[in-house]
Design goal:
Elements (H helix, E strand, L loop, with lengths): L17 H6 L19 H4 L5 H24 L4 E3 L5 E10 L5 H7 L3 E8 L4 E7 L6 H11 L4 E6 L2 E2 L2 E5 L7 H4 L8 E5 L10 E4 L9 H12 L5 E5 L10 H14 L3 E4 L1 E2 L4 H12 L3 E5 L19 E6 L17 E4 L3 E4 L5 E5 L1 H18 L3 H8 L26
Parallel strand pairs: 8-10, 8-11, 9-10, 11-13, 13-14, 14-15
Antiparallel strand pairs: 1-2, 2-4, 2-5, 3-4, 6-12, 7-17, 16-17
């Protein structure tokens, strides 16, 4: 089994030229769709007229992304397949919403089989899992189900990937004040990720994948950043466990429902995947209950497809900056951008309790979520509070590189 953290292979690339680090995030790239396949072929067109250094770095990021996903698929062909858009998903089944009794005849006639139907706790969202006809692969079955009009929405059970990497162990370095600070924020923050190790103790944890909860470095780092930034109650939904198809859409929906039902007012998710109807509807249901979603824009560069769930309506999209407050060269993009937070030279604990340096938009996101939770606790409009707190970077006012400004600028960095 290969746990998928896309930026791990980028760790040795990130010491790119200062010029590229300043220029790359400024690139405005047309929407190239939500697919893995076909992205690289459009680069010549989407980056036409852009500085050559920027083009080179953008191409390298996408090549690394595509190679990593191809490798994941090759190693797990018994559990992962490509959907109709070329994105990776759990093999052998589809997810349907709004399936009626009248749909059953079409399901039976086409050779589909109902595996289960469940209503997600906390969200009221009913999802039916369909096994595929024996003679069709995932993409073919998805196209057929849509053509037949089964349910109101059909989707693959798409995979989502963690958006950050461990750079180096620095256990002898002094621990930043924010990592060891006393809890002061009473608003509960839920996180959807891997589980934590024993050195980072959440309020509660529950697994939503095979072998979950299972301690992970990424989940431990995200949780320790929340705790270090003052969040007293951190609840963890592990959507990975030991499952090679972990991080899938159904696991995310189930985990989100549990967090909502348990009282999390803010949910942070440092994962990135394609647009998916189940995740989109789950997030919309959580938002209707007053939960604020915070998500990373990913680390695939500005020419990558828009990041989800960061790009869903109403989700607070977060990017990362380095120690000089420059946008990360590898920062992805969303259809909107709200805030930036530290995403390089960030210090947090891994699953073994080792003090470690991390890089990626994954680690900017919990820092922004902690400030959002603090703003909610203060009462009034949290957006107004955060906008007053955010430090404006780049052009005056909100922009496509830093959003509405930098939050938690000194958080989780070595003093």
């Amino acid at each position: 089994m290969m746990r998928m953290v896309l930026p791990t292979l980028l760790a040795t690339m990130i010491v790119a030229s200062p010029l590229a680090a300043q220029l790359l995030p400024q690139v405005q790239v047309p929407d190239v769709g939500g697919t893995v396949g076909g992205v690289t072929e459009t680069l010549d067109q989407t980056l036409e007229g852009v500085d050559e250094t920027v083009q080179r770095e953008a191409r390298r990021l996408l090549r690394t992304r595509d190679r990593t996903l191809d490798r994941l698929l090759r190693r797990n062909r018994d559990s992962i397949a490509r959907d109709v858009n070329g994105d990776l998903a759990r093999k052998g089944e589809l997810l349907a919403m709004g399936v009626t009794a009248q749909d059953q005849a079409a399901i039976d006639d086409a050779g589909f089989r109902v595996l289960s139907t469940e209503t997600i706790e906390g969200l009221g969202l009913t999802i039916t899992r369909l096994a595929l006809p024996d003679d069709l692969d995932l993409a073919e079955a998805e196209a057929l189900a849509r053509e037949l009009g089964i349910g109101t929405q059909i989707s693959a059970d798409n995979l989502h990937y963690q958006s950050g990497a461990r750079i180096m162990t620095v256990s002898s370095a002094p621990v930043p004040a924010t990592v060891r600070s006393a809890a002061s924020i009473g608003v509960e923050v839920g996180m959807i990720d891997g589980a934590t190790g024993p050195w980072v103790r959440p309020t509660a944890a529950k697994g939503f994948a095979q072998g979950a909860p299972a301690a992970s470095n990424h989940g431990s780092a995200v949780a320790s950043l929340l705790k270090g930034a003052g969040v007293a109650r951190v609840r963890v939904a592990d959507v990975y466990g030991t499952d090679p198809a972990g991080g899938n859409a159904l696991a995310i929906a189930r985990g989100l429902g549990w967090l909502v039902a348990s009282g999390s007012e803010v949910v942070t998710i440092s994962l990135v995947g394609p647009r998916n109807a189940v995740v989109e509807q789950a997030i919309a249901a959580a938002q209707r209950k007053g939960v604020v979603m915070v998500a990373a824009v990913g680390n695939d560069g500005p020419a990558a497809p828009p990041a989800y769930p960061a790009s869903y309506d109403g989700v607070v999209a977060v990017t990362g900056v380095d120690s000089r407050n420059r946008a990360l060269i590898e920062a992805g993009r969303a259809l909107h951008l709200d805030y930036a937070a530290p995403g390089a030279d960030v210090f947090a604990l891994d699953a073994q309790g080792t003090f470690t340096k991390w890089r990626g938009t994954s680690f900017a996101t919990p820092l922004a979520a902690a400030r959002l939770a603090a703003a909610i606790e203060r009462g009034g409009n949290w957006r107004t509070v955060l906008d007053r707190e955010a430090r404006d970077l780049g052009p005056k006012g909100p922009d496509a590189t830093y959003g509405r400004g930098l939050l938690c600028g000194d958080c989780a960095r070595k003093k």
